[in-house]
Structures are given as C-alpha cells and as structure tokens.
Design a protein that fits this description.
CATH superfamily of the largest domain: P-loop containing nucleotide triphosphate hydrolases
Number of helices: 12
Largest sheet: 5 strands, parallel
Helix content: 40-55%
Number of domains: 2
Structural class: alpha/beta
CATH topology of the largest domain: Rossmann fold
CATH class of the largest domain: Alpha Beta
Distance between the termini: 25 Å
C-alpha cells in the first residue's frame, strides 16, 4: 500500500477549508477553535494526523483516564518539541495551572496548530475543557478537536462556553463512490476495475477504515502472485 498519501476525498476537502478558515481568521477577535465530528471509522483522524506529520502540527490523542495534570504535562512536552525540535530533558514541576502557564507562554511566543483527538473523553472533564478554553483565549494558536457523532450536541449541553467558541464545524460523512475510487487509485498497488470499486463502496458502507482493510486483503493475495490489475469477476472467483 502506498505511503504518505492524503487522498482528496470529500471529508478532506472540507477539513482543509476549516484549516484555511482558522488560519485566516481575525486572530484578535476570534478564537481559533474548530471541531471535526462524526461516526466511527469515517476517517476523521485521517487528514489531521497526516497533516500533523507533514506540517509539524501538534497531535494529541486523549486517554480515557486523562486528568488535567497529565494533559498539560504531555501538552507541554509536545509544544516544547514543536518549538525546539528536541525532547525536553527536564519535565516541568508544579501544579496543573502553573504548567498551563508555561504552555501559554510558549504558545504566545510561537503559536501552533494543535489537534486534540478523542475529545469525547474531555467533555465530562471541566478542567481539561477549561485548559482548552484558556489556550484559545490567550494565544493565537488553532485547536482542532476530533470527536464522535454526538460530540457537537454534548458540547452544547455540557459546555456551552466551549461550544460558542468553535468557529468552524466539520461533520465527517460516509465515503461516496467517487471518494472510494479516489482512495483505491491513490493508495492501492493493485489497479481495480470500476465494478470492483463499486462493490467495495457497498462493502465498506462508506467507512474509510473498512475500505483500507479490504484493500490490504486484496494486496496480500494479489501482489505475491504478480497480479497488478484485478477485475470484479476475478475478485469474486468467477
């Protein structure tokens, strides 16, 4: 499977529009907070994670047992690395609030784009949400939160002060047939005919994760046997 490829599927195009909007916002009047939300396996993390690698963004995946202290400690290390391109040998000491102050100081001097995945783990944690609020209020950094399909409504219900600060929402949608064709062409090392692509679209039910699994299975069978092109009939064993 081809590496370092970001397919220009519908969700990715919408996410790119969000990044562009946040980057060009009037920073003195608008917080740089965005959210990507949607059902599982639709590829919500696909573009932000790839973009973080390519552009040096900070990517942070929340844990189920995350505390405000562990959040700011790990965030401090990630900001330090993004700023200095080296690991921090001396972990910061102090309260969660004092370490947050150190993070704010670095971000005020050098704003970053921060992707926070699994934001649902934080929606019930007021202190983590307050930390995110403080960062977007006191720095010009952008924060992109990634959550499940009900994250938007949960945020409105449980933390309306955060919801009101989100200036761009992206709802991840199931892959279209055109999206599936683009992904197959971009990452699969076996050329698939149109009927097989259509079959994979129905099989994966619009879920990027499932599509990638199916393409991997095809490659594992086809490539060792020298098969570079595959039709639907051949795939079905007809």
């Amino acid at each position: 499977m081809k590496k370092n490829v970001v397919s220009e599927i519908s969700n990715v195009k919408e996410m790119k529009e969000m990044v562009k909007f946040l980057a060009n916002r009037p920073v003195e009047h608008m917080q740089g907070l965005g959210m990507i939300y949607g059902f599982w396996a639709l590829g919500k993390t696909y573009f932000p994670a790839k973009a973080a690698q390519k552009f040096g963004w900070i990517y942070y995946q929340l844990d189920a047992n995350e505390s405000a202290k562990s959040f700011v400690l790990k965030l401090y290390d990630k900001i330090y690395f993004a700023k200095n391109d080296t690991l921090n040998e001396f972990p910061p000491r102090g309260s969660a609030n004092s370490i947050l102050g150190m993070c704010i100081d670095m971000l005020q001097k050098s704003p970053q784009t921060i992707v926070i995945d699994e934001i649902d783990y934080a929606i019930n944690n007021r202190l983590i949400l307050e930390t995110i609020k403080t960062i977007v209020d006191k720095t010009f950094s952008e924060i992109i939160m990634i959550g499940m399909d009900n994250s938007k409504s949960k945020l409105l219900r449980k933390a309306p002060y955060i919801h009101s600060r989100v200036c761009y929402w992206v709802e991840a949608k199931p892959l279209t047939l055109e999206d599936v064709a683009i992904v197959c062409n971009d990452i699969c090392e076996v050329k698939l005919d149109a009927k097989l692509v259509e079959h994979l679209h129905k099989l994966c039910k619009g879920r990027l994760r499932e599509l990638v699994k199916q393409l991997h299975v095809i490659e594992c069978v086809a490539l060792p046997n020298g098969i570079k092109e595959l039709t639907y009939a051949e795939y079905m064993g007809k």
